[in-house]
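Researcher: For the annotation table, I need structure tokens for K+-transporting ATPase, KdpF subunit. Please keep the output clean. Sequence:
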Amino acid sequence: MPASHPGGEAMFDLLLGGTVALALAVYLVTALLRPERF
């Protein structure tokens, strides 16, 4: 992703970090609610 404007890469990192954090949170909640699957 080319950083054509200031803050572009920071926004991408924030979006990527948020996506990873959200996926991890969903995984943890699912593991807590359904422990028999893990």
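Researcher: And a one-line annotation?
Model: The chain has a mean pLDDT of 84.
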